[in-house]
Design brief:
Length: 750
Amino acid sequence: MPSRPLYRLAVTLFLIAASALWTGANAQFSPKTSGQGTSVVTTPYVRAELLAHAPQGVAPGQPLWLGLQITHQPEWHTYWKNPGDSGLPTDLAWTLPAGLDAGEIAWPLPKKIPIGTLANYGYEGTVLLPVPVTVASSFAPGPLVKDATIQLRASWLVCRKECIPEEGEFTLQLPIQSTTALSGAAFEASAQAHPRPVLAGTTGIVPDSQAQLAAEGNTLNVSVQGLPVALRGKTLDLFPETAEVIDNAASWKQRWNGSVWTAQIPLSAQRSASPSLMPVVLAEQSPAHATGPDTRNGYRAELKVLGTWPPVASMTAVSPALEAALKANAAQAGGAVTSAAGSGASSLTLTAALLGALLGGLILNLMPCVFPVLAIKVVGFTQHAQDRRAHRISGIAYTAGVVLSFIALGALMLGLRAAGEAVGWGFQLQSPAVVASLAALFTLIALNLAGVFEFGHFLPSSVASLQARHPVADSFLTGVLAVAVASPCTAPFMGASLGLTATLPAPQALAVFAALGLGLALPYLAASFVPAVARALPRPGAWMDTFRKLMAFPMLATVVWLVWVLGQQSGIDGAGALLILLVGLSLVVWALSLAGRARVWMATVSIAAMALLVWAFAPHITHIPTAQAATPSTQASATGWQPWAPGAAEQIVAGGRPVFVDFTAAWCVTCQYNKKTTLAHADVLADLQTKNVALLRADWTRRDPAITAALASLGRSGVPVYVFYRPGKPPVVLTEVLSVDEVRATIAQL
């Protein structure tokens, strides 16, 4: 019987998803395994411990250090303040008693960690990240208070070939009166590993005549004088504190001219910063695969840039796919407003990602992009309303079609990323050819529903009879179609889950996509097994033919939307060409539905005409006119929105002005809804103007690797994404479906 293989397939997929959920929950890590109030967190990859050093007790004017000591498993590493080509720096968020103020991490000297064609900066073995703490003169805990409660929430990205985002919550009771010097040796070693100023007695800012940098073409010419005698004549490593400036993995030339060290270092092809003062750390080059304690001394200098940087646009672009993949830490599990990646926000575990994907798939059923396919599903339900067994088989087949299609789409996306393509969720609709193909498919479906033709008339009898012999095929293909239409949409809870797939091994990433598909199909799977649903459906009758023809109009509405999307990509000529081809396609289908000699004559003429139309107009569909690129900027200026560019938000924020970025696409229905409602609301616009918020719009309608990388750095792989950037504070990511109250509340906090 045809139902048994499908039933076994559905059960197998469910067990796979459940197994992945259990495996992720137990194999990933649990940051609180040591119990509440612990100072130690152990995962399969690191051991992290909160340490303190107060040699004179906790008192004003006395030294006090806190720090997180990370001991890595062999071959695993975490990252420096500038992680290099990929990764994220460790983030520490403190909760301290009144009168104690934690400073910034005094980053120890890192080592260069090559990964394929890239290079990272980070730590292996055991490293202590010390933080100086200032004790205010007003600090007076009282005679009965013996201890100060120190709380830390830390997040880090630990990598080998794969990367695992982890976090931990630490609590330490620090004696106030007595000394706390048990960890003194660790802090002393960390102090020795902290880079020193190049010139003794200075703050590390070397006079212009002794440390400088000049950009010539795609090369940085570095010159430093005043390095210690012990380094002279040796090969050095250079660690830039400013990310995305140099090509970290490239080989470069260096030499000594007496006491002056010079180097010629290639610029990064994705350079996003042009600092006027560039801090760097210099150290003797460590041997490859060195083990044991790092005894090198590091020296810090701030290089003053001479001349001007070359334009970023002149750099040769290469794929940032691996960088995007490793930077995506999926820092959210959903919610109204949360901080973005790298700001100390929590990183998702696999368990949370699976649950978020399941819930996001459920909500996806409410998105307008899925409505046309739901209409087809309703027709199918009514056909099996009185056959409970057929009803259940239809639900299982639909679920199998949805889940397998999501897995296939996820595998394709992961494969393209591994091949170097910068793609994200909904990437297929960035191709005008795919948009045009979907428009043709939905035109055919609309004509079929309207009764213009039946698919069985065009197929061999053996193929056409499959529907009668295997009716589950219709339900399965309906599931495939649902995924094709729903894939451009991003529902709440989906964004963070999909963002995490970039950092997971392939089996776990595919489990997330399977959970997303299961969520989309779950209402129909459940309904097919609930007898009350079948009893509530009307009996089949003549009304079904009328309802079927009515359902042609949602399909035609989808075609209108796809033509509009193509117009955003290929201009008005591309949209017009697609409309002409759709008319020709409709003519061919109508001609093939005729009977007798008229069918032969009309079909021959219409097919010849269609071939001529394809030859004449198909090139217009995939052609992107040069004038098209200027259109968004013109429209944006008129409405207060400006086009997004790499580094634009950071540059504006550096000037003290907050920025709101709308990551959007023409094919994203949720984006268009938010744009026409919340983002156009008079109160929201007034609040944005009052706070002098700069408005940037990142249009992802066509493929843009820079936008893909920016989304990945926020832990996202699709649109919509809405981000507020604030001076001196981490960015804030809003939910996918915006509300006026949510946006206004966030603006009020700027």
